[in-house]
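Students often ask why we bother encoding 3D structure as a string. The short answer is that it lets us treat folding as translation between two languages. Here is a chain of 276 residues written in the first language.
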Amino acid sequence: MKKIKNLLCITACLLALIALNGCSILAESKPVDPETAQTLEGVAYSLVSQILSQTNDEQFSEYLLNLSPEEYELQFESMGVYVEGDAMLSGVQSYIRGSEQLGNLKEITGTRSEYDSKGTSIIVTVSVLGDKLNSLNAPREAEVEFVFKDNYYKTLTSCATNVILTFGEKMENAGLNTLIGMGTVFSILILLCLIISCFGIFPKVEAAMRNRKSRKSKEVAIDQPIAHIIEKEEMSETDDLELVAVITAAIHAYESAKGVPVSTDDFVVRSIKRRR
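And here it is in the second language, the structure alphabet:
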């Protein structure tokens, strides 16, 4: 019984997914009003043929790239076309990047319009051919996609150029991305291994620094008593000299008091013995 219940639950989930996919397909297949489609496709065709295709001219492309979003909106509004300035600027940038593979515009092969999955915007796709060849030695194809909001003004909200690659080019890009990703991962792993291997060096360096400090402290501890002894010896020598001078002066005074002429050179103090 439990297995049957599980199977029923799985079947119900699959049916729900199929129903959701069916709803999205219905939303995507919502037809665009012919008059609206003709108008928007005409706008998209003009944007590609008269503006985007002219970006191969460096001066014109520089002019377009230097326009602000507000300037785009004002200029297109004066022509009766409503655009979002950021969307148009990004569309120009996208077409310039795509033209590196596409080359100069050779031909516009067709246009089509459809609603997006939500049914709130109309997507107009302009198919074009460039003068550059793909890996099959055929003219490079691209699709310039315009998204118009389904409102009264049909405002342009997005613009992008998608260059169509052959299967071999897609596989080449996929392989290159894989190599770059794997190379990055292995580089990081090697760096981590090097950092971890350095952890064994730090304790040795710390131990060496501790030994050096302990040696310095021992040398200081030894040097201090030696210096103290030397200082005492120097002080004792100074005291002895002073004592010799005092004794010599006393003897000289004693002999002189007896009336005997005495010179300090006539006697020498050989040693001094202290008695406690």
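Translate back mentally: Residues 14-164 form a domain with the Nuclear Transport Factor 2; Chain: A, fold (CATH 3.10.450). Keep this in mind for the problem set.
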